[in-house]
Write a structure and sequence with these properties.
5-stranded antiparallel β-sheet, about 10% helix, globular, binds the ligand Nc1nc2c(c(=O)[nH]1)N[C@H]1C(S)=C(S)[C@@H](COP(=O)(O)O)O[C@H]1N2, binds molybdenum atom
Length: about 400
């Protein structure tokens, strides 16, 4: 279809967040991207194709469960178009002695108990831009603190499906669950990654094959009609548009699994990093962020206080037990008030929102604010990014530090 400027204007007003004119102008030429979903204009655009966008910080703290249209989006490829009525999930068990295959329509998945889990998803690259700015350049999307959002996911347990397929009888040691999506790269390879089988079978891991997000069908951008949700893990493991599950002796062979989301120390360079021996990141470490005010903002002082709000999160089911704020570079700390989901111990997959009325001096013009969280394993955040720096800029979880200007009442 030939798209006139009017049609572009209409399309843009309907669906695309903050696209530069140049991006919209050639939109119609590229068939691959012509069927992308409508998107909320409030999302903070990082890249248009593939579409990557952050939840605005104010929207993070305004809703404990992020509204679907404001949930951050991380795509590697164009959004695939799938039909819920005909969609099939393949399960393949390849453990040497030949292959066993199972297939489930979405209707057939409903034979398993339906469950909901409240869980944040956080990209392992969240807050990468701070590591990049405060130490030295890293490679990856320059996420600020908006690559995390929270939702209630509905579906069936991956564990129940795996038990149905006979995997309760095997020793899970050194076996993997490869999750493959329907999105393909330019060379025809499907997005895929894997998690260890023992993790998938852990009854407390609450890993879902999800069809619902905050009570409605998954949006196109978030994996319609079926995605994995691996709570407490780097969100890359929560494969969208899920097409197949393979139980294998090997981890996923895909580029996204083999060449990304692995842990390196600060001395490793692109020349010396060996991806084949570096541990893949599954569970995430503890982090926190000041969402309001923003760094550099002019903030009104009310009754001698400024209001600070943000989130804190830890992976692996750990709960946030404390969020500490300092306005004097660590000489003293105040405890923020926490808004926490009531999940069972060690199954705390939601984020925690926090707030604090910070006292300031009558004539104070500026204040530097530091925030750090502590989780239920009493792990806490590193003070600076220096020694956790890594080539990909992942797990960027040092104290969040902002500098704000104060506007006193007159
Ligand atoms: N099929 C598929 N699944 C995927 C991805 C993808 O590009 N394709 N991106 C992963 C990454 S890196 C992240 S951070 C999360 C983002 O999920 P969201 O877009 O629902 O926030 O999806 C993960 N699952
Ligand atoms: Mo990610």
């Amino acid at each position: 279809m030939h798209k006139t400027p009017e049609v572009f204007a209409l399309l843009e007003s309907l669906r695309i967040g903050n696209l530069a004119d140049a991006d919209v102008a050639d939109y119609g030429d590229d068939e691959l991207w012509a069927r992308e979903p409508y998107r909320d204009r409030r999302l903070i655009l990082k890249t248009a194709r593939p579409f990557n966008a952050e939840t605005p910080p104010k929207q993070q703290v305004d809703h404990f469960d992020t509204p679907n249209e404001l949930f951050y989006v991380r795509q590697h490829m164009p959004v695939p178009e799938l039909d819920a009525r005909t969609h099939q999930l393949q399960v393949m068990v390849r453990l040497g002695e030949g292959e066993r295959r199972f297939q489930f329509s979405l209707g057939e998945l409903e034979q398993f108990p339906s469950v909901t889990v409240r869980a944040a998803l956080m990209c392992a690259g969240n807050r990468r831009s701070e590591m990049n700015a405060q130490v030295k350049p890293v490679k990856g999307l320059s996420w600020a603190g908006g690559a995390i959002s929270n939702a209630v996911w509905g579906g069936v347990r991956l564990r129940d499906v795996l038990l149905h397929c006979g995997l309760g009888d095997v020793d899970p040691t050194d076996l993997h669950v490869i999750l493959t999506g329907a999105d393909v790269d330019a060379t025809g390879v499907n997005f895929s990654t894997s998690i260890p089988l023992h993790m998938a079978l852990d009854p407390t891991a609450d890993i879902l094959l999800a069809t619902q997000m905050n009570g409605t069908a998954l949006p196109l951008d978030h994996g319609y009609p079926l995605r994995a949700v691996v709570p407490g893990a780097a969100a890359v493991r929560s494969v969208k548009w899920l097409e197949s599950i393979t139980i294998s002796k090997e981890e996923s062979p895909s580029h996204w699994h083999q060449k990304d989301y692995r842990s390196f120390n600060a001395s490793k360079t692109w020349e010396t990093a060996d991806f084949s021996t570096a541990p893949p990141i599954y569970h995430l470490p503890v982090t926190s962020y000041v969402c309001e005010p923003a760094d550099g903002e002019y903030v009104p002082v009310r009754d001698g206080h400024v209001l600070l709000r943000g989130y804190a999160y830890s992976g692996g089911g750990a709960k946030i037990v404390r969020v500490d704020v300092s306005s004097d570079r660590g000489r003293s700390w105040s405890e923020a008030e926490l808004q926490t989901d009531s999940a069972a111990p060690r199954r705390h997959y939601s984020w925690t929102l926090w707030s604090l009325q910070l006292p300031v001096q009558p004539r104070q013009e500026d204040v530097e604010i530091w925030v750090k969280a502590t989780d239920s394993n009493f792990n806490t955040q590193p003070e600076t990014f220096e020694n956790i720096w890594n080539i990909r800029g992942i797990l960027s979880n040092a104290y969040h530090r902002i500098h704000i200007h104060l506007k006193h009442e007159t």
